[in-house]
Amino acid sequence: MHSVPVATACALYHRFYQSASLRVYEPYLVAMSAIYLAGKVEEQHLRTRDIINVCHRYFHVDSEPLELDSQFWELRDSVVQCELLVLRQLNFQVSIQHPHKYLLHYLLSLKALLNRHAWSRTPICETAWALLKDSYHGPLCVEHPPQHLAVAVLHLALRTYGVELPLGSVEWWQVFCEDITKSIIESIVFKLLQLYDMEAKCT
Amino acid sequence: MDRMRKIKRQLSLTLRGSNSGDKSLSETISPQDTAHSDSDAMSVRGSGSLRGAVRGSGSVRTGSSFSMHSLLQSYSSALRRPRSLGRSLSSYLNHTTRLEIVHEDVKMGSDGESDQASATSSDEVHSPVRVRLRNNPGRKISTEDINKRLSLPADIRLPDGYLEKFSINSPLFDKPLSRRLRRVSLSEIGFGKLETYVKLDKLGEGTYATVYKGRSKLTDNLVALKEIRLEHEEGAPCTAIREVSLLKDLKHANIVTLHDIIHTQKSLTLVFEYLDKDLKQYLDDCGNSIHMHNVKLFLFQLLRGLHYCHRRKVLHRDLKPQNLLINERGELKLADFGLARAKSIPTKTYSNEVVTLWYRPPDILLGSTDYSTQIDMWGVGCIFYEMSTGRPLFPGSTVEEELHFIFKLLGTPTEETWPGITSNEEFISYNYPRYRPDCLQNHTPRLDSEGVDLLSKLLQFEGKKRISAEEAMRHPYFHSLGERVITLPDTTSIFALQDIQLEKEPGIRTSSLSDSAVVSSGCGVVTE
Questions:
Q1: Mean pLDDT, range A146-155, rounded to an integer
Q2: CB contact under 8 A, B234 and A82
Q3: pLDDT tens-digit map of A132-147
Q4: DSSP string covering B451-467, please?
Q5: CA B29 – CA B347 distance, rounded (Å)
Q6: What percent of chain B has pLDDT over 90?
Q7: Rounded Cα distance, B305 and B320, in Å
Q8: What is the pLDDT of residues B438-496, one digit of tens each?
Q9: Nearest C-alpha of chain A: how many angstroms from B219?
Q10: Fewest CB within a 10 Å sphere: which of A30, B121, B287, B325?
Q11: Is B6 annotated among the ligand-binding residues?
Q12: What is the CA radius of gyration of chain A?
């Protein structure tokens, strides 16, 4: 599965639970349907069977693969049914703008700005990219516009490695994105770090 | 009278206010959501930034599977669900029954385009700018009020008894309308219900959908009902999902309007505005010879609709006369966005097989997957030619034959006319004879020199050399339409301008194109 459908699936999932309750709808089922739907939206069609088998494997690492019996068919029907539910809940608004292209664009401009040594010494690109990927664990992707997310992860990556950018008349993020402020960046970074904390607690 | 007006203004203020309220509230709610799902995981924060960095680079190494896995894991542990097969399966099954209840009860109606607030809002949201309406129990609530309140079209007919319901117990009018209430109201009026629409004739059948002509009981207007069969195993077809998700955002005078979406167990029905015929039928009906002035009007409207799509980074990818609908006023609208999609990343390659062969550009025929808005412009050229001559430009039935037709007219490309073509393996393998470019003018006798110039700019081998929809609209060919057509607002038809009028088609046969045309041709039968 490519990274764009994965990101779309996460975004669909979070968007769904923005308006629906975790207690009412089974999160695993919604997650499976979100993956299925994302495959359709992003032109990488996935088979329900594969999704069910892979998900089953994740949840029950040690158990046998599912039998192709009536339970399996019922499970598949509920995935398909749930897909329609997700569609309706989201009002069919399933095309999603991802921050990745903005981040790529920003990284390219930064590379031109910094000297080559500083660039090659620190894995800014990789870190920012990974941060962005991890941000999909939480509902950040539906709460903030893609440009803001891209700027925020880049900011965090730069700060982590202590890379200073040459000071211009305006801050660098204002060059990339006009309507972002320091406080927006900080709130995104804060939420992102919370996600990592939450995961550390869980594992 | 004055008071009525005041109340209406307040109403519309409230509506607008509650929209913006939706947004701000959903933003304030979401952090709580996060907190809720991991109520005990919020304590350690000090060393966050360092940990973040370590984690971040950690997941670089393990790649995306790690991210996906940990996502699932974090949720599963947050909820502390037992991981036994039996339990989770039974909860899936439970869920199916619950699903059905939801379908019946909550009335999560698909209220089509009438619902502007997107899925990001929560239900019981009140306006931050609370406009207090005077409590006035004796006031009569009119149809007009309700139309205003629910932002419905003015010509709608509310079901009997709907108004009475409001006058008996109408707390609804005294407070701002929540999203759920609005949905319920819309559904009571008849949106999202199959009974609201009467099926008339069958118009056509595609691979996954059947199109019917229908009539809406709400407005008495004709509608087109596109009934999409839901495959039991596959769910909604992806073309339908894309079509709906795109059309919901596209509002333009030259793009077909999606009125409503009806969702039942077996099918998904899209309700579109009804237009009399497509360009193909129109061509047939006027003996394959459209009045040249009308050709210009149609082409301009096609470009106008396309420019709007391209501006919003949407490619149509399936332009052909069958997908261009025309009503009796002469308004042309783009339809069938099943193959279109939001263009997200310009560098991305798309799946190869998209446009109907006759209207497919040569770079795509030769295997290019790296295309952009120019993919649609070649098709515009082909349609332009077809409108002015009455026959398709390159009616090839295979890729090889299609390219053969193209090169026969435009000349076999060389390194000068198409840089890089001589290293294209598919091009080499076809081994076409060396044709010299023909003069377009000889093939299009009815087209003036400016028209030929525009046509040649559309029919460029290389995508990047093709004229864009926006540039094409400013081409001298259209100067006779005047300056103002370019600056019209998106949702205004070009026929709103006084000096723009459809010419009568001389060769028209029995058709309802315009009543006067039918009468003047001495034919008394008006077909519906």
A1: 89
A2: no
A3: 888 888 888 888 888 8
A4: HHHHHHHHS-SSGGGSP
A5: 36
A6: 28
A7: 14
A8: 998 999 999 999 999 999 999 999 999 999 999 999 999 999 998 889 999 999 999 99
A9: 23
A10: B287
A11: no
A12: 20
pLDDT in tens, B201-214: 888 776 667 889 99
- Decide if B55 and A25 are in contact by the 8 Å CB cutoff: no
Query: Is the pLDDT reported for residue B219 higher than 90?
Result: no
Strand stretches in B350-427, DSSP E: none
CA pair distance B281, B363, nearest whole angstrom = 29
Q: Please tell me the number of Cα atoms within 13 Å of B36 on its side-chain side.
A: 11
In this complex, which of A43, A78, A95 lies closest to B95 when CB atoms are compared? A78
* pTM of structure: 0.66
Q: Out of 3.50.50.60, 1.10.3720.10, 1.10.260.40, 1.10.472.10, select the CATH number for domain A100-202.
A: 1.10.472.10
More confident residue, B359 or A46: B359
Question: A residues 110-139 near B, CB within 8 Å?
Answer: 123, 126-127, 129-131, 133-134, 136-139
Active site residues of B: 318
**Highest CATH level, class, for A3-89:** mainly alpha
Structure confidence at residue B51 (pLDDT):
41
Give chain B positions within 8 Å (CB) of A17.
33
Residue A9 confidence (pLDDT) above 60: yes
Strand partners, B493: none
B359 pLDDT exceeds 70?
yes
Assigned token pair, B270 = 């899209």
Are the C-beta atoms of residues A46 and A35 closer than 8 Å to each other? yes
Question: How close does chain B come to A172, measured CA to CA in Å?
Answer: 21
HEC readout, B327-338: CCCCCEEECCCC
Domain boundaries, chain A: 3-89, 100-202
Amino acid identity for residue A163 in this structure: V
Q: Which of B28, B37, B60, B92 to mutate to probe the A interface, most A CBs <10 Å?
A: B92
Instruction: Give residue B460's pLDDT.
Output: 94
Which residues, numbered 16 to 35 in chain A, qualify as contacts with chain B under a Cβ-Cβ cut-off of 8 Å? 17-19, 22, 24-29, 31
* Gap between the Cα atoms of A142 and B436, Å rounded: 55
Same topology between domain A3-89 and domain A100-202: yes
The pLDDT, as a whole number, for residue B516 is 37
Q: In the prediction, which pLDDT does B177 show? A: 53
Strand-pairing partners, residue B325, are B278, B333
Query: Bigger pLDDT: A173 or B40?
Result: A173
Tell me how far apart the alpha carbons of residues A176 and A158 are, in angstroms, rounded to a whole number.
Answer: 15
Q: Read out DSSP for B434-500?
A: -PPPPPHHHH-TTS-HHHHHHHHHHS-SSGGGSPPHHHHHTSGGGGGG-SHHHH--TTS-GGGSTT-
Model ipTM value: 0.70
B95: closest CA of chain A, how far (Å): 7
Six-digit token string for A148: 């803001």
3-state secondary structure of A41: helix
Instruction: Give the SS3 label for residue B11.
Output: helix
Distances (CA, A) of B409 to A1, A133, B440: 43, 50, 8
Span B278-299, pLDDT tens digits:
999 999 998 888 999 999 999 9
- pLDDT band at residue B518 under the 50/70/90 scheme: very low
Residue A186 in contact with partner chain B when CB distance is under 8 A: no
